[in-house]
Amino acid sequence: MKFRLFCLTSALAAVFFGFTGPRVQRYDLIIAHANVVDVETGRVRPDQTLGIRDGRIAYLGKARPMAAPKTVDARGRYLIPGLWDMHVHFRGGDSLAAANRNLLPLYLAHGITTVRDAGGDLTPHIFRWREQLAAGQLAGPRIFTSGPKLDGPKAFWAGSLEIETPAQINRALDSLQKLRVDYVKLYESTISREAFLGAIAEAEKRGLTTTGHMPYTVTLREAAEQGLDATEHLYYLLKACSNREDSITAAVQASLKTSKPLGLFAVLPAVYRTYDPAVAAQTYRLLKQRRTAVVPTLFIQKLLTELPSTDHARDTMLAYIAPSIQRTYARRLAGARAQSPATRAFNQQLGARFTSLVPQLQAAGVTLLAGSDSGASNSYVYPGTSLLGELELMVAAGLTPTQALQAATINGARFLKADQRSGTITVGKEADVVLLDKNPLENISHLRRVQAVVSRGRLYTAPELRRLVQAVKNP
């Protein structure tokens, strides 16, 4: 009788207190037995299982008793953090808003779970998309945005906030803060030296991150010392590597008082000829010291250099670009075809010089951010695939695959102050991960072999990604 009572008591205890063996942890999604790529160290952790709950990584380690409505067997495959494209554009006005929105799945299908919009004229639409993305009503990447660019009077890009005086600078920054943008983007089409430096200084006082195209009336040292957080493209960095930067800058400033002001492209040959490795090394030290990042955008530079002689009419990706966006390609295409043989030859030389700067920056400890510059008006720079092309060019330039991956993951998250919740595969971080067929540390082109994407904790299998992309395709 006592023995039976003991057994009954033990059974009841097991029911009420769970002493029936190891407790089964429950998740929304399990990715089992993956090779996890640590982008910070460049090492692979084999046979790791992820438990994802409420859009976050809740468990990472060896398999244990766990259950979920969906489980992915990732044996033999490689898991990386979702990629960040740190330079894209959503623009073209209300008439192109739907066409821009429809491109969002293309980023996801290429493993890009976050993008940084570098200024345009679709800000209200972007904030609406962000709400829809968060609610699961749209499939696409997380979007960080600068909102409208800051530029001078009669700015080139529609939607820009035009600034000249300190009062205008303050009003513009007030409006951006009211919009709750993620950073401030400056552009150089007509902005004055004083307004450019003044906007950086005021943004710095307010704790705002700034990036920009720099007018050639300003030196990179001046901008970095005022607090510029990143320089977009390499035209402005190259000028800072010239042993005649001060005199070139002074000549551009003086030309503004004449009927023929000197623009960037007019002085680039002089900048190129006066490149000095010693000056370049000093510039890199300054950028590292001031924590000013560089967004190289090698892919668009190469594409534009080859545009005069390349026929893109049969690009497979063109089928996913709305005719309304394709029509915005005409201006650059016409300009490329009108280039003289001498200009084409110089652009080839310039591209080679730009490429050589990238491993030097990396070796000097300057933060590199990977960006494609895809968007309306940027001819044939397609969403998604162009970032993968950027990373391939960075590796071809001399970076290791690990360093290129850092530029497209943890570096982007750190730059936008999101590294506590994104950029690596770590417990507690957002469940934005990409499952690949092969190891990208061995060959960066393996990033093109996406087996599945998890965005905001939601699984998109390869067939689902194909369906999303097909829905974008033009009839």
Throw out a few tags for this protein.
19 helices, alpha/beta, single chain, globular, 19 strands, 475 residues, 41% helix, four-stranded parallel beta sheet, 18% strand
Q: What fraction of the residues are assigned to beta strands by DSSP? A: 15-25%
The 3D shape can be described as: globular
Assign the structural class, choosing from mainly alpha, mainly beta, alpha/beta, alpha+beta, or little secondary structure. Answer: alpha/beta
The biggest sheet, with number of strands, parallel, antiparallel or mixed sense and barrel status, is: 8 strands, mixed
C-alpha end-to-end distance: 79 Å
Question: Mind telling me the C-alpha Rg?
Answer: 25 Å
Task: Estimate percent helicity.
Answer: 40-55%
Task: Kindly state the number of beta strands.
Answer: 19
- Taking all residues together, what is the mean pLDDT? 94
Poorly predicted residue ranges:
5-19
**Total helical elements:** 19
Outline the secondary-structure elements.
Blueprint lengths: L1 H16 L7 E2 L2 E10 L4 E11 L2 E6 L4 E2 L2 E4 L4 E4 L1 E6 L8 H5 L2 H6 L2 E6 L5 H12 L7 E4 L4 E2 L9 E2 L3 H14 L4 E3 L6 H13 L4 E3 L7 H7 L3 E3 L2 H6 L4 H11 L8 H10 L3 H14 L2 E3 L2 H9 L16 H4 L3 H8 L3 H23 L21 H13 L3 H7 L2 H6 L17 E4 L13 E6 L2 E4 H11 L3
InterPro entries: Amidohydro-rel, Metal-dep_hydrolase_composite, Metal_Hydrolase, Metallo-dep_Hydrolase
Pfam families: Amidohydro_1 (PF01979)
Protein name: Amidohydrolase family protein
